[in-house]
Amino acid sequence: MMTRLKFYYFISAIDNETCDKIIKIGIDKINKDKCEGINTQATVGGELDKKTNPSFIPKNELTASELKQKNIKITETYVRDSEVSWLDLKWLYELIQKYMLRANIEAGWNFDIDYSETPQFTVYNKLGFYSWHTDGEGDWNSVYKLYIRGHTDEKLRKDGELPNNYTFNKNLIGKVRKLSFTLNLTDPNSYEGGNLMFDLGSHSEKELYECVEARPRGSIIVFPSFLQHCVTPIKKGIRYSLVNWMVGRPFK
After folding, report:
1. Do 93 and 113 touch, CB atoms closer than 8 A?
2. Where are the alpha helices (DSSP H) in the chain?
3. Which run of H or E residues covers position 122?
């Protein structure tokens, strides 16, 4: 799908006090989850993470073709290295939706969206990254399906997580991610690397854009969930962010 604007941003929209508040809540939730035996390590693309597969190679910002050139099998890479917690707080939904709905109109997308997923707090420590991916494809093949324990054929993953495109939330059934939201919670002078990058063309041609608009603390980026993007490895310090997605019926 072609759109006139690839992303829409609000520079330093959220004040330092609110950023600090979200970081504290997010870290406290991670620590609480760990004490309760809940896995806080983010894994994507199955169970290919460094904890369970220490011999695997971090994919970082390499494309599939670049991995091939280096004779690295994609099945022997992990695609994300971060910690996460889920913040189901009414005031956070209200804060996020205000900017997502505004961006949807002002960018001219006017996507049919009607529900938000739970906000995700993310910690990228040194060498943490998230390689090239989309948050959702937007078609009928990627709709959320209800997971029913004991009835759904797909089994839970070894880490206890749901299989791809499955959910317990009935409000997500039959819907897809359409808009993605990223709030940078961290002073950009306190870390190096960790840049949000977009592929604005054909991914194989690497028409890349480093989104410097996202670096000022409190800045928000909203973009279509089908847009290829990545977070480059952290070279120094820690990067905290809050991400979210708004969903709706598949694109026609």
Report:
1. no
2. 16-35, 64-69, 90-106
3. strand 120-124
CA 150, chain centre distance (Å):
29
**Burial of residue 18 (number of CB atoms within 10 Å: 0-12, 13-18, 19+):** middle
Q: Which tokens sit at 83? A: 């910690």
Residue 69, amino acid: Q
**Cβ-based burial of 90 (10 A; exposed 0-12, middle 13-18, buried ≥19):** exposed
For the chain, give the number of residues.
Answer: 252
Residues of the chain with CATH 2.60.120.620: 8-40+86-136+178-241
**DSSP of 50-76:** TTT-TTSEE-TT--HHHHHHTT--GGG
| pLDDT reported for residue 157 | 73
Contact by Cβ (8 Å): 25, 245: no
Per-residue pLDDT at 173: 94
Smallest CA-to-CA distance from 7 within 104, 147, 126 is with 104
The burial of 37, by beta-carbon neighbours within 10 Å (0-12 exposed, 13-18 middle, 19 or more buried), is given as exposed
What number is the average pLDDT over the span 25-50?
83
Q: Hey, which CATH number is domain 8-40+86-136+178-241, 3.40.50.300, 2.60.120.620, 3.40.50.11690, 1.10.357.10? A: 2.60.120.620
